[in-house]
Amino acid sequence: MTTASAEETASRVNPDVDAIRHHYEVGNDFYRLLLGPTMMYSGGYWEPGEGLREALDRAQERKLDAFADLAGASGAKRVLDIGCGWGTLLDRLTTVHGVGRGVGLTLSRTQQEFVHGLGNERIEARVESWEEHEAEEPYDAAFSLNSLEHFVHSSLPPRERTKRYRAFFGRVHKALRPGAGFVLHTMTAEALPMNRALLDDLKFLQRSEFEGCHIPHLHEISLGMEGLFDVVEIRNERESFAKACRAWLELLAQRRDEAVALEGEDVVARFERYLDIFAYTLEDRFFNNFRITVERRS
Ligand SMILES: C[S@@+](CC[C@H](N)C(=O)[O-])C[C@H]1O[C@@H](n2cnc3c(N)ncnc32)[C@H](O)[C@@H]1O
């Protein structure tokens, strides 16, 4: 085995900005077509009997409202969204839940442009990694929805990964006031029963779509936050994330020609494959999607 140079190690430890942009800087018009008007890229809360595609936006809004309550964010002065996507959560918090100011972090310049285009003066998206963020004053609540999967590089050995998770939770702890709520949505994986088809699909995810992405194990998260946060609730919401993937696939199928005209056949085929992999790995219980609500310890 060869030993990695200091430079190689550093580039693995720091976020791989190009790998993130490969996925999140596909044009905003394409994402609008894929995700629908709410522009949320994580699971939603459907009521029984509701159509996936028809109720997608309502399901997303329900989720955002539930998250606002869980984090105790209503009426808060300042909130932080780590991995803010297109700013939908911050927009809703400031327009519906009386939040004074929302700061979002993303590595995608096109997402930042989109947030800017919302024209909501109470929210700001910064192209900044979580490890660079310095809070001007403590936040009253924080969120991170399906972004943690990007924060720790898959090539790191387990002990180094744990250090990175600790660094992440340490940062969030530092950014929040004591007693503040933090709601984290993240896929997790336990030991996977390997089979050839699954290995091929995981290889595709690592090589072609989400290079370096690591789906955390629950114990990595709990080691990361030990002593820093008190757990309030953990819920496995794998079905609701799988439903969202299926809804996005339906939307994409419905407007496939337009999507191809915007971004080309290769990009559309990549998205179709990765969304189907996420949907079936959640449905077949290879992956989970945990909603973890915690409170910052003093
Ligand atoms: C799946 S999207 C989720 C977006 C949004 N939370 C939602 O639910 O719609 C992941 C987000 O994480 C952001 N991200 C990835 N790595 C990051 C990092 N190191 N620091 C801050 N944001 C990051 C991406 O730019 C993207 O906005």
TrEMBL record:
<protein>
    <submittedName>
        <fullName>Cyclopropane mycolic acid synthase 1</fullName>
        <ecNumber>2.1.1.79</ecNumber>
    </submittedName>
</protein>
<dbReference type="GO" id="GO:0032259">
    <property type="term" value="P:methylation"/>
</dbReference>
<keyword id="KW-0443">Lipid metabolism</keyword>
<keyword id="KW-0489">Methyltransferase</keyword>
<dbReference type="Pfam" id="PF02353">
    <property type="entry name" value="CMAS"/>
</dbReference>
<dbReference type="InterPro" id="IPR050723">
    <property type="entry name" value="CFA/CMAS"/>
</dbReference>
<comment type="similarity">
    <text>Belongs to the CFA/CMAS family.</text>
</comment>
<dbReference type="GO" id="GO:0008825">
    <property type="term" value="F:cyclopropane-fatty-acyl-phospholipid synthase activity"/>
</dbReference>
<keyword id="KW-0808">Transferase</keyword>
<dbReference type="InterPro" id="IPR029063">
    <property type="entry name" value="SAM-dependent_MTases_sf"/>
</dbReference>
<dbReference type="GO" id="GO:0006629">
    <property type="term" value="P:lipid metabolic process"/>
</dbReference>
<keyword id="KW-0949">S-adenosyl-L-methionine</keyword>
